[in-house]
Amino acid sequence: MIQIKHLNLYFGTKQVLKTIDLEIAAHKVTALIGPSGCGKSTLLRTLNRMHDLTPDVRIEGEIEVDHIDVLSPQTNVHQLRKKVGMVFQKPNPFPKSIYENVAYGLKINGFAKGKIDEIVEDSLRKSYLFEEVKDKLHEPATRLSGGQQQRLCIARTIAVHPQIILMDEPCSALDPISTGKIEELIGELRKDYTIVIVTHNMQQAIRVSDYTVFMYLGEVIEFSSTEAIFQSPTKELTKNYVKGHFG
After folding, report:
1. Could you give the angle at the alpha carbon of 67 between the alpha carbons of 198 and 18, nearest 5°?
2. Are 107 and 101 in contact (CB under 8 A)?
3. Can you state the angle between helices 113-126 and 98-108, rounded to 10 degrees?
4. For residue 245, is pLDDT > 90?
5. Do residues 29 and 5 make contact, with C-beta atoms less than 8 angstroms apart?
6. Could you tell me how far CA 224 lies from the centroid of its own chain?
7. What is the H or E stretch that residue 84 is in?
8. Is the four-CA dihedral 164, 168, 174, 180 of positive or negative sign?
9. Are 240 and 225 in contact (CB under 8 A)?
10. What are the tens digits of pLDDT across the range 34-91?
């Protein structure tokens, strides 16, 4: 689903990503782990061109998402982001109603008006939120709890039918109960979506992911099944990190 070849990224003269080569499988959850500042979120954001507005960024290499050349100047970024959705670290609902948060992307993408109600409900159900909000769909989304807001943002993402969902530490601002609900939701979403998640929580990576990428100082040190990374890593640096010796 995602092929990354010889990817290098610079902010000004500082190289942040160094010769990244990865193939990310469809309908699986791939976790990006590593200490703060190792390039996890930077890598994630290259996959749907989130660095486009950074004035001093320079990117070399290739990224292909479902046969789309992500880095090509000819690529339609709007169409790319329909295919590759993003859920951020902190919930960021629009200052609109719960309903309008989910319907917004459908309206601007020209979905038929008669289908919008159906898709909004379906997206909220898939995000395990509908039963909690069905009687207050037209109330402000900002009145929801943090965990509910994050599930609303996931509903907003999947409403436009992406193929890939990028998650940048989606549980870091949430309590343990809300985190559990998001993790359960990720387990369900993997049936229909390819998911790439950045997490600092190694236990979370073990619980939710099929594959794990360990990064350090802008490089991919090891990439394997999550079980192999945490139980039998081949690199000493990986072993030290997953055992909590640094990070």
Report:
1. 45
2. no
3. 130
4. no
5. no
6. 19
7. strand 84-87
8. positive
9. no
10. 999 999 999 999 999 999 988 899 999 999 998 889 999 999 998 898 899 999 999 9
